[in-house]
Amino acid sequence: MTTTIFHNPSCGTSRNVLALIRNAGIEPTVVEYLKTPPDRDQLLALLAQLGLPVRAVLRKKGTPYEELGLGNPELSDGALIDAILAHPILLERPIVTTPLGARLCRPSEAVLDILPSPQQGAFAKEDGEPVVNAQGERLAK
User: Fold this and answer.
1) Residues 45-54, mean pLDDT to the nearest whole number
2) 90 domain residue, yes or no
3) Is residue 11 part of a domain?
4) What are the angstrom distances between the C-alpha of 14 and each of 53, 70, 87, 94, 108?
5) Bridge partners for 95 per DSSP
6) What Rg do the C-alpha atoms of the chain give, in angstroms?
7) What does the alpha-carbon distance between residue 28 and residue 43 come to, in Å, rounded to a whole number?
8) How much of the chain is in helix, strand and coil states, percent to nearest 5?
């Protein structure tokens, strides 16, 4: 099994996660899900891997979430999945799958819990926040 990131290159968190994966010496499969969205079966499999309900992967900010009325608690999971399939921007990002599991990597450091290889050196997020020290060890917040 390879490491895969469902990535949006316009998202800073997604870019940070991709950089952390690469800092572990892993070149992941990068799925730019806005260009190549998952189909229904792939989305259902991804949700099963994550162990999360559909609502947990719905992105609200910068999406048609409000105008589509997706906050309505009466909407079924099927309706929410249909909305994600019609508007892939509704899928929260980044999602990473590795041989050790799957995570919605918000915050970006969450990816460290599922990487099969250690960090190979220091890493700081785009905003300068240090995440990993020179020895490849995760820094406490």
Assistant:
1) 96
2) yes
3) yes
4) 21, 24, 18, 5, 7
5) 6, 104
6) 16
7) 19
8) 35, 15, 50
User: CATH number of the domain that 117 lies in?
Assistant: 3.40.30.10
Residues contacting residue 88 through CB under 8 Å, at least 6 positions apart = 33, 34, 37, 38
Among 24, 113, 27, 25, CA closest to 7: 27
| Strand (E) or helix (H) holding 32 | strand 29-32
Q: Record the pTM.
A: 0.94
Task: Note the pLDDT tens digit of each residue in 95-123.
Answer: 999 999 999 999 999 999 999 999 999 99
The answer for residues whose C-beta is within 8 angstroms of residue 85's C-beta and 6 or more apart is 37, 39, 40, 43
pLDDT score of 53 more than 80: yes
Give the count of domains, the chain.
1
Matching residue, tokens 């960090």: 119
Which of 1, 2, 4, 11 is an active site residue? 11
Q: Does the active-site annotation cover 105?
A: no
For residue 138, tell me if it sits in a domain. Answer: no
State the residue range of the domain holding 75: 4-132
Tokens of 83: 């909305």
Residue 84 lies in a domain: yes
